[in-house]
Amino acid sequence: MKVTKKTNIFNLVKNYPETEEILLDYGLHCVSCFASQFDTIEDGCKVHGFDNSTMRELIEDINKVIGNSDKTNK
Question: By C-alpha distance, which of 6, 67, 73, 34 is closest to 22?
């Protein structure tokens, strides 16, 4: 899976629980919020005042973890 700014937060954490820690490290506590079922990463970043650069860094970090996770699960 390739995560983008349009990726749903709830589905991301459901499918890749290890991404929860990254979101929390960035200050996105959306994982425990009701809105995570509907919000994308972009939505969460906007609500929390992230600039585009920080959002890109977050997405890159998530994709690194998911890439490693996908490789170990094969």
Answer: 67
